[in-house]
Amino acid sequence: MSNSKNNNKTDKKRRARFLPLTPFAGSKPPAPAWFETCLATPFEQGNVDVAGASIRWKAWGKRGAPGLLFVHGGVAHKGWWDFIGPWFARHRRVVAMDLSGMGDSDWRDAYDMPSYADEVLAAGEAGGAFEHERKPVLVGHSFGGFVTFGSAVRHGARYERAIAVDSPVRPADKQRRTAPPRRGGRIYASQEEILARFRLLPDQDCDNLFLLDHIARNALKEVKQDDDSPGWAWKFDPNLWAKMTYDMRAAVETISEFNCPVAIIRGEKSLLVSDETWAYMCKAFPGRTPRFSIPEARHHVMLDQPLALVSALRALISCAGDK
Question: Which residues have CB under 8 Å from 261's CB, separation 6+?
Fold first, then answer.
């Protein structure tokens, strides 16, 4: 009897607190007109080979305009920017891409930050972000923010500015050195079932269910089950974190090596970039580093406050002709 109670406690700890798409039973939540306008914005797609892996990219706006690149977070995909990127397409060539092991890009035998920085650069070049005399701006969220920091070191001379969104920079002795828990790998019998299991990491509620539904649907792929019947799975490599190199230096140790200006943004209610972490970051980065704290946003800033994020990014990349 006591073992049963202990198992129940363990299950409760492991169970996601928020499964926001469950009540919709596979149907799409209602969405506002601005979101539908973003999805209707014309775009191009393509692939570029980077060290033997096919990297998928998507772009809005005209080739030849100043570039803007977006990098998604861990086990995410380029679709997280589908409702952000189009806001900049009038004056920018906007490129979002899938890092290897995620989205529609190939999986690798091993993953590391230098390779990710190379993928971002190659996708930006293939997508047309470097065809203007002005250097492009690079934006990354969460894990993508660390890719952005790595890009500011490795390829910073190619970028006008690098912007990290809710990427927690901590003292070197508090930097993560081990892989997060394994994610994905399970096959679900129906699209309805797998959508009902979708949740954010870190676990949180979100009022904009139409955005959650969009990113969840774009994270799925059809597969075959063991009995050859159709099934559904998440696109990302379930062994992604186990294949990741974690012997890299802490992000804070690379700040002095940035080869382009850097800016930082966080969600004011973020669990990862807490007030304590944010205070440390504001001291660790140079005094002139632009910094924005988005009110009423948690870690997934573009989901909680998408239009506020657009405004903050516009302020950071503003110039004559940009709006």
Answer: 160, 161, 162, 289
C-alpha to C-alpha distance for 214 and 211, rounded to whole angstroms: 5
- Name residue, tokens 């952005």: 148
User: Does the pTM of the predicted model rise above 0.85?
Assistant: yes
Amino acid identity, position 133: E
CATH number assigned to the domain with residue range 42-176+247-317, chosen from the 4 options 3.40.50.1820, 3.40.50.1980, 3.40.1110.10, 3.30.565.10: 3.40.50.1820
DSSP string, 285-297: S-TT--EEEETT-
Summarised one tens digit per residue, pLDDT across range 265-309 is 999 999 999 999 999 999 999 999 999 999 999 999 999 999 999
- Provide the residue type at 131 as one letter: E
- Between 224 and 108, residue with greater pLDDT: 108
Q: What is the 3-state secondary structure (H, E, C) of 268-315?
A: CCCCCCCHHHHHHHHHHCCCCCCEEEECCCCCCHHHHCHHHHHHHHHH
18 falls in which pLDDT band (50, 70, 90)?
A: confident
Contact indicator for 299, 166 with CB cutoff of 8 Å = yes
Per the prediction, the chain carries an average pLDDT of 91
